Amino acid sequence: MSRSNFAGRAKGRTQRSPNPSKTILNKVTPKKLHPRNAHQQGYDFAKLMLVMPSLRAFVRANPFGNLSIDFADPQAVKCLNSALLLSDYQINAWDIPSGYLCPPVPGRVDYLHYIADLLADKGQVIHGPSIRVLDIGTGANGIYPLLGIQTYGWQFVASDIDPVSIDNVANIARHNPNVQMNLQLRLQSNPEHIFHGIIEKHERFDVTMCNPPFHRSLAQAAAGSLRKVTNLAKNQQQKHGKKSQNLVATQTDPKLNFGGQKAELWCDGGEVQFLTYMLNQSKEYASQVLWFSSLVSKYENLKPCYQLLKHLAATEVKTIEMTQGNKVTRILAWSFIPANLRQQWASMR
Fold first, then answer.
1. Residue 267, pLDDT score
2. What percent helix, strand, coil does the chain show, rounded to 5?
3. What is the largest CA-CA distance in the chain?
4. Which of 15, 36, 105, 320 has its CA 20 to 30 A from that of 89?
C-alpha cells in the first residue's frame, strides 16, 4: 500500500488518562480472527481451485499432507489472493503490477470488521452507503475499498501518491460494477500531505483507514521478510514435529513474497514518524472525520502516539489488538468529536 513518502478487539480493559474527560484508551485483545471473518478455518484449496483453475499450478501437498502453496513464491501468493477475492468477495479480475504489495486477505478484512464494530450504532453493525470511508494509501491492490464495499456496502474514497496504483485500482473497479459505483480514487499530488488535497472543504467521513509503512529502509524490510518466513517454518516445526524439518531447511532463502514499493513498505523515520505526521495533520480535519484510524505494527510506537493525541486534545482514543496466528497488530483509533456529538452524527446518517 503506497502512502505519503516524506522527504526528510469488544469488551476490554479501560485505562483512563490523567484527564479522563479528554482521552480514554480502550484496549481490546481477541485471541483469533474476528468472529465475522470468513477465513476462520483457513484456506479451502479444493474450493479455490474450482473457482480459479490457474491456482492448481501452485498447490501441492505440504510435508504434513495438507494442500498448500509456497508462501515464499510471489506468483503463488498473488494467485491465491485472486482466488480468495473471487470466491469469497465476488471481485473479478484482481491483479497487481509486478513488485507491488500483495496483502494477506484474512488480516486486511479483520481491520474492516473491527472498524464496523467501532461504527456500530447501538450495537448494530451498519451496512450500506451511509458509511463513508477514506483509505489513505490504497496501493495498487486497493484491498480495503474492495473488501469494504463487497462486505459492508460502504462508500470509499481511496488516495495514493502513486499514479500506477491509482490506475490499477481503477482497472479492477471497471471489472466490478458495484465497486466502481461506490469508489472514488484521488491522486495525492503532494507527498508531504496525508489529508490535505484529499478531504474536500465540506466533505465528511465516518472513518479513515491506513496501513502505514513500518520499516525505516529497504534493508529493514528485507530482514522483516526473512524473520516472517523463518518464524512460519519454526511454528510449523513446533506444531508438527520432525515432519517439518525438511520444510525448515528449504526456506533458507526467502523472498519478499509480499512485494512492495518504497512508499508501501518503508519511509524515513519508519512507522512512528509516519504516524506522527498523520496524527498532527488529522487535527486540521477534526470536525470532518468521526474517527481516524491506522494500523500500528509495533507496540512500542503506541506510547508516543498516546502522548501526542493527548497534546492534540483528542476526546477519545481506542486501541484494538488483532491476533492473526502468531502475529499481533493494533488498530489505533482517535476522535476529536465529543461522545454526545458522535451520537448525533450517527443519528443523522
1. 55
2. 40, 20, 40
3. 62
4. 320
Query: What is the pLDDT confidence band of residue 14, given thresholds at 50, 70 and 90?
Result: very low
| d(C-alpha 184, C-alpha 201), whole Å | 16
- CB contact at 8 A, 319 and 26: yes
For the chain, helix (H) and strand (E) counts, in that order, are 12, 11
Query: For 20-54, what is each residue's pLDDT tens digit?
Result: 334 445 554 445 899 999 999 999 999 999 999 99
The H or E element containing residue 207 is strand 205-210
Place of cell 464496523: 116
DSSP symbols for 23-52: -EEEEE--SSS-TT-TTTT---HHHHHHH-
| Three cell numbers written together for 149 | 464495499
Q: What is the pLDDT of residue 64?
A: 87
- Rounded CA-CA distance 48/83 in Å is 6
* Other beta carbons within 10 Å of 328: 12
Q: Which residue has the cell 480472527?
A: 33
Beta partners for residue 135, in sequence order: 158, 209
Compute the C-alpha angle 326/113/333, nearest 5°: 85
Residue 215: strand pairing partners: 266
Residue type, 310: K
Q: What are the residues facing 67 on neighbouring strands?
A: 61
Beta pairing partners, 208: 134
Instruction: State the average pLDDT for the chain.
Output: 83
Report CA-CA distances (Å) from 189 to 168, 266, 318: 17, 19, 31
All 3 cell numbers of residue 188? Answer: 495525492
Range 138-144 average pLDDT = 96
Q: Confirm if 208 and 136 have CB atoms less than 8 A apart.
A: yes
Residue 236: pLDDT above 50? Answer: no
Pair 116, 148: CB distance under 8 Å: no
- Among 95-109, 120-134, 208-222, where is mean pLDDT lowest? 208-222
Is there a contact between 293 and 332 (Cβ–Cβ < 8 Å)? yes
Q: Considering the entire predicted model, what is its pTM?
A: 0.82
